[in-house]
Design a protein that fits this description.
eight-stranded mixed sheet, 16 strands, 2 domains, Rossmann fold, alpha/beta
């Protein structure tokens, strides 16, 4: 066959499995998949397997990937905790991949049961299984989260760590915990979450100026309630700061009620409607400081975004809060204790040292952020998926 009539080499087919996708569900992992899919589509044929988040047919063609609904969209949370029912239904639905075409199988590690099913699929199909791991919960945190039942959940996490042929860790700290838990028996690649620095730099401040901003899912371990308590303490001390809460989640109604009970409703703006990333960056830039009181975080993309937008960030010293490592690298970052009073004191100190007005440019003092571009993350992920 001559060069002019030769058929093009077939691109590898990657099956990406995650129960939540952007823009239907917004969080660090969803944004990560969205950005990586846009960049990996030039190297491979991408098929995303998820729940049926959209209306209409079970298969939807996107610009960079084909999206497949494995099952109907089950609620991911019961109260502020992940739904066991949703995890079970999604895991069983992953058996459908036995009949799908792919060369390598990649999956998000949460909520764990699907990893064991995907291991079975990959074994039967004789394909590689690669899993992206955002955070290691560990035995102690599972016990705190579920009580005695936490022992079974930890066993499931422990088994899931050993199922993949290759793990992609979303931070160096998560990689260290994985190496310890698996005793170095699983291949690891570190591919941190990224940020679109050009989009950040080109976005002007938007919205009314506030003193403090927090971004994240409104769920228990993000501890937005602690921030509201800290704002109330500052008001009680005669410092009438304003606060913007950006995000949505199962604790939405409870947090509104808490702000009212604390008497700070007039000082707190809840934004549950923020969609585009540029809108988020504009709102971040119209704040003076950012708070991130999370008890558990595998990376902390919201912290990275706040620092990139020029904001000094306060976070807590919680052992499972890996975002504290990002804050420690920022010249104006502060790590405080795990109480509302400690958070209030740290915020007051930062506000005293921060000029009034919108946030400044990240280029002034945090040039290390250039390490976290999405192109670099995509190259690392491609290396793990397509060796």
């Amino acid at each position: 066959m001559t060069a002019s009539t030769a058929s093009p080499e077939r691109r590898p087919v990657i099956a990406l499995v995650t129960d939540a996708i952007y823009p239907y569900h917004r969080g660090g992992k969803e944004i990560r998949y969205h950005e990586l899919i846009n960049r990996l589509s030039s190297r491979a044929e991408l098929h995303v397997y998820t729940m049926n988040w959209w209306r209409g047919e079970r298969v939807r063609e996107g610009e960079s990937a084909t999206f497949h609904a494995l099952c109907r969209c089950h609620p991911m949370y019961v109260g502020s905790r992940r739904s066991i029912r949703q995890a079970a239904f999604f895991a069983l639905a992953c058996l459908r991949l036995l009949a799908r075409r792919f060369d390598v199988l990649e999956a998000d590690h949460m909520p764990y049961p699907q990893i064991m099913v995907l291991w079975l699929v990959a074994t039967i199909r004789r394909k590689r299984l690669v899993v992206t791991w955002h955070e290691v919960w560990g035995r102690d945190y599972w016990h705190q989260y579920l009580g005695r039942a936490g022992a079974l959940a930890w066993l499931l996490e422990w088994l899931a760590m050993r199922a993949p042929d290759h793990i992609i860790a979303a931070s160096a700290q998560t990689a260290d915990r994985l190496r310890s838990a698996t005793r170095g028996r699983t291949r690891l690649t570190v591919a941190p979450n990224g940020i679109d620095l050009d989009a950040v730099a080109s976005t002007p401040p938007a919205g009314d100026l506030v003193d403090v901003v927090v971004v994240g899912r409104l769920i228990d371990h993000k501890r937005v309630g602690m921030l509201l308590d800290a704002v109330a303490l500052m008001h009680a001390a005669g410092r009438h700061v304003t606060c913007r809460v950006i995000g949505d989640g199962p604790d939405r109604a409870a947090l509104h009620e808490r702000a009212g009970r604390l008497g700070i409703s007039g000082a707190v703006e809840f934004r549950h409607d923020v969609g585009e990333q540029k809108e988020l960056y504009g709102l971040l830039k119209s704040a003076r400081v950012s708070a991130f009181p999370s008890a558990r975080e595998g990376f902390g993309i919201a912290v990275l975004e706040a620092i990139a937008c020029g904001l000094p960030v306060v976070t807590t010293s919680a052992p499972d809060n890996q975002a504290r490592h990002l804050v420690a690298r920022s010249e104006r970052g502060t790590i405080c204790g795990e109480s509302a009073q400690a958070l209030a004191d740290a915020l007051a100190d930062l506000l005293d040292r921060t000029p009034a007005g919108p946030a400044g440019s990240w280029l002034q003092d945090d040039t290390w952020l250039t390490e976290f571009g999405w192109d670099a993350a995509a190259a690392a992920v491609a290396g793990a998926l397509l060796p």
